[in-house]
Amino acid sequence: MIDNIWIFILAVVLDLALAEPPNAIHLTVWIGRTIAVFEKIGLAIRGIKLQFIFGMLVSVFLIGIIGFSSYLLLQYLSGIHTGLFIIAAVLLFKPTFCLRESWQLSLGIKKYLESDCTDIQKADRKIRFLLTTVEHGENGSTDTQPIISSTIRSLMENASDFLVAPLFYYLFLGVPGAIAYRVSNTLDGMLGHRGQYEYLGKFAAHFDDVLNFIPARLTGFTLVAAAWFSGLNAKNAWRIMLRDHGKTESPNAGWPMAAAAGALEVRLDRAGHYELGDAARPLTAATIGQGVRLFRFMAAINIIFSVGILFLLYFLT
Length: 317
Prior knowledge:
Elements: H1 2-18, H2 27-42, H3 48-80, H4 82-93, H5 100-114, H6 125-137, H7 144-191, H8 202-229, H9 234-244, H10 254-264, E1 268-270, E2 274-276, H11 285-316
Antiparallel strand pairs: 1-2
Helix pairs in contact: 1-4, 1-11, 2-7, 3-4, 3-7, 4-7, 5-7, 5-11, 6-7, 7-8, 7-10, 7-11, 8-9, 8-10, 8-11, 9-10
């Protein structure tokens, strides 16, 4: 059990020090490439029943085979050398969550907005796609309000999907559990088509909703606590979270996003879909900075809490 504590701490330190590994060796990237192979097959299938069955079988197969393979690998390495086991476990666990990269992307957008730059092509490569999607995908304009709203919403939703959830499953199922969650979440993101191919990703979407049920709510509650520690409006975060969490199409995404809207005292909206919070304060580039501070406090609370649980499990076993 002491190994689990070291793996957790070293993976967090690795994230803070280096952020994300290169795509060539990034576990999530390879998971995505594997899913893409099956996705091409699925897109050739006609009929919603066959699409649903194929999507379900692919999801169960990939979640099971990738998660179980990681378990077998780590079991094998643990029998050879403890140090080798820990190194491998850290390298496998780290890509399942994203901490530093999340706030760096948000701060990159903040920097872009503060520079008064109107040429998206001059923006950093990592945020260029996000800017293009928001500006032309949501409202067809270059208004900064949708960009700021989308940046904060994405950061808070990712707080659950890319931090709290994988750490949650690591606590109870170890590295294989965190990897299995990442496979499920990636399946939802890649197979979640609309229209003709909607049923291809139905199972993955619903299964991901189930897996995120507890982590999303934990993220919301942790953001309320983070608002208090960071000097933001914790009382309003609690009120807005309870009031607005059900406004999103997702049964989970509204919890962290509504809590953040309340803490920041702003309205976070997606045109034609939902509005979270009250517009007590305007959305500015500085709001992104406050959102990043809220995210960092939330992450710190979650990490400290997780380490505490690991130590408790260590002393109880």
